[in-house]
Structure formats: structure tokens, C-alpha cells
Amino acid sequence: MKQQFASIIAALAFAALVACPAIAFADPPPVAPVAPVAPVAPVPPGNNGNKGTPTPSAPPGTLALSLPPVVPEVLVAFAVPVVPVIPVIPVIPVAPIAPVAPVAPLVPDVPEVSEALKPPAGQRLSLETVGIGVQIYECKPAKDDPKRFEWVYKAPEAELFDSAGKRIGRHYAGPTWEASDGSKVVGEIKGRDDGPDPGAIPWLLLSAKSTAGNGVFSRIQSIQRLHTVGGKAPAAGCVRAQAGNETRVAYEAGYYFYSAGP
Q: For 215-237, what is each residue's pLDDT tens digit?
């Protein structure tokens, strides 16, 4: 009978494990030793051995067992898997970007000048620069009176800057304009205007007498010298003792370069 009882208990435990594979048994607290169980006497038919109430008789050939109540000394821990919660980030709709219209290239403004200083028709303004430097004069005899001496214009000496203030070339005798890329243009005077400032050198229109190199000045056909400041020869003149001497007078001017236009 003990062997059958143990077999039934083992079968019930195995069935519980198979039915609940996710159950994890925690370590139980220490349990006092259980006293040996006395042999169970057979129960007479029709008597439960205690209260005298009738007990249904077991079918012939079977064993009637009275199972003890389950003692909750075993703590059962249910292993519940924890599912991480991923926060949902809202999607903000992005407005479509409108296409950017192409930017037209900047075209220098053509200055307002008198008819005497306008370049020939068909030419367009291609470059605007500022010249900063000196006008050089030499003490020589006057053409109409060799006994009298005066300051005679010799040459310019200036640096050329673009509208952003970057040095792009130089201006010197000829008159010659030379770009940093090596191209050159030599001009000759075609028109003249005294300009609004009597204390400044006159405004000029020059045509290209020759060009050289392959660059910004190699295609120039006309040049304007406008908006002049300073640069005039000393009003006091010079004397024989100063013959051959030079004087350098600071000046500034805007130079406008024209090329053949479409």
C-alpha cells in the first residue's frame, strides 16, 4: 500500500509540472522532520472510521484511500515574464521644401555719365573696380615758356580692388591696367569731363589701344575713370631748382571696364 500511495503522489506531482511549465519553485523554508506514518488499517465497508456516516463502497478489486489535506508548506512562485514597454514617439509631418529658384548673376550698375564719357553702343559693363594710390608728377619746363617750370603729369601708381575689397590687380604707366591673372589692357583717352569736384582729377573715357594675356582684362574694349578724389598736381607749381623732381599726390577713383556685349 505504501508503494501505491507514493506512486500516486509522484504521478500527481509530475502532472502538475507538465501542466504548468512556467512555475518555478522557490526554496522552501526549513521544515521540521515528519514523523513516520503509522500503517493505515483497512476501512470496513459502510464506515468512514470516524463519524459513522455511510461511505460509498469501492468497486471490487480497488483500494479506497483517504488522502490527507494539502499542507501549504511549499511556496510556489509564478515566473511572469516582464515585457518591456517601448515608448511611442509621435511622427511630426514635415512640409515639403519648395524648390529654390536659380539666382541671376549680379550685374554691375552702369553709372550715369555725360555723353562724352559713354562707351560705344553694343558694349556692356563687365567689371567695376576701385583704384587707390598716387598720381605722379615731375617738375619740367612749361611747353609754352621754357623758362617757367611746372608739375607735369607722369604716370599713375595704384592698386585695384573689387567690390568686396579684394585686390585684383594694379594700375601704372601707359596707362595700363594689369589683373592678377596676368591679363592687361592699355588705354588711350577718348573723352574728358571735369567732374563735380574741382579739387580732383578729371573723369575720363578711354578705349583699349592694346590687350595682352588671357584673363579678365584681355577682352576689355573701353574704360571709364569716374568718382575721382584728389590726385591733382600742386597748385603752387615748381622752380628750376626742382627740375626733374617728382611729387606723388594721393588719389582714389572708380574704374569701369566694358567688353563686347551679347
A: 999 999 999 999 999 999 999 88
